[in-house]
Amino acid sequence: MPTTPIIRYASGQVSYPQDILTEEEPLEIGLTVYTDTGERATTTVSITMRTPGYDAELALGFLYTEGILSANKGDVSYQLSNNKVIVSLPATMPVDLARLQRNFYTTSSCGVCGKASIEAVRMVCPPAHTYPYDEVRLPASLLLTLNEMVVKAQAQFLQTGGIHASALFTIEGKLLNIYEDVGRHNALDKLIGSCWLNGLLTLQSHILFLSGRISFELMQKAVMVGIKVVVAVGAPSTMAVAIAEEYGITLIGFLRENRFNIYAGAERIMM
């Protein structure tokens, strides 16, 4: 990992150590599709600032949660090069390239720049009635254990203190997978892309953990994979709460030490 010399002041003492930094580089996500004339065309659909690593998972997760990839991997393939991923789709997955070029540009601080409102989510996500409240009940004590498990599993965060994480738990609180990235939405795309590659995209019986605040685009991605419980260390936005209420998601924020706030779906939490 990259380092830089710093001057550290602590307890009245000055030292000159090397500090480990979180790496950040641009990633271009390209898409090759069949056009109406039957020809192949490639276009750039996203440029995102990310932490290098698991670039294929990031690209696939991004394209799936935007409704471009289907759950069936079929003949989807991808090529990796320096800071670039090109995903090739079969003729059975038609794409409107003009819409893509109008709607997509992301950075590590904003993963939803091309979308104007919650209506954009409704266009991509399944109908809300497919996510009713179910029989899942989670004890509050289980939720209070998640943050510590994530922190222990965040290898890069322990070294740099400057990176986000998205983690997937079973409903019983077992940590299944975790991905880190300088961008919140990138970390989640890597997690979802990994699930897509492994054929695991029905996640109603799982818990999604987010290391930062809960934003509109993160909730949109959660809806796309059927997540019903989202917990985070940070605060949700108004749009995040609106998505949770509409799609029957239990939304928990400020999960720290021995406390948390429930913003939607309190029916699932036993206190």
How would you describe this structure in keywords?
alpha/beta, four-stranded mixed β-sheet, 29% helix, six-stranded mixed β-sheet, flat, 8 helices
What topology emerges from the helices and strands here?
Elements: E1 3-5, E2 8-10, E3 13-15, E4 18-20, E5 25-34, E6 40-50, H1 55-65, E7 77-81, E8 84-88, H2 97-103, H3 118-124, E9 138-139, H4 140-153, H5 155-160, E10 164-170, E11 175-181, H6 184-197, E12 206-210, H7 216-224, E13 229-232, H8 238-247, E14 250-256, E15 259-264, E16 269-270
Parallel strand pairs: 5-8, 9-16, 12-13, 13-14
Antiparallel strand pairs: 1-4, 2-3, 5-6, 7-8, 10-11, 10-12, 14-15
Helix pairs in contact: 1-6, 7-8
Count of all domains? 2
CATH 4th-level superfamily of the largest domain: Cytidine Deaminase, domain 2
The strands making up the biggest β-sheet line up spatially as 11-10-12-13-14-15
> Residue share in helices?
25-40%
The overall pLDDT average reads 84
CATH class of the largest domain: Alpha Beta
CATH architecture of the largest domain: 3-Layer(aba) Sandwich
DSSP strand count? 16
In N-to-C order, the SSE pattern is EEEEEEHEEHHEHHEEHEHEHEEE
Give the N-to-C terminal Cα separation.
42 Å
Per the principal axes of the C-alpha atoms, what is the gross shape?
Answer: flat
Give the CATH topology of the largest domain: Cytidine Deaminase, domain 2
Q: Figure out the total of helices.
A: 8
Put the structure in a nutshell.
The chain has about 270 residues and is an alpha/beta fold.
Structure description:
It contains eight helices and 16 strands. By secondary structure, the protein is α/β, with parallel strands linked by helices. It has two domains: 94 residues, no CATH class; 141 residues, Cytidine Deaminase, domain 2 (3-Layer(aba) Sandwich). Helix 1 packs across helix 6 and helix 7 packs parallel to helix 8. The N and C termini lie far apart (42 Å).
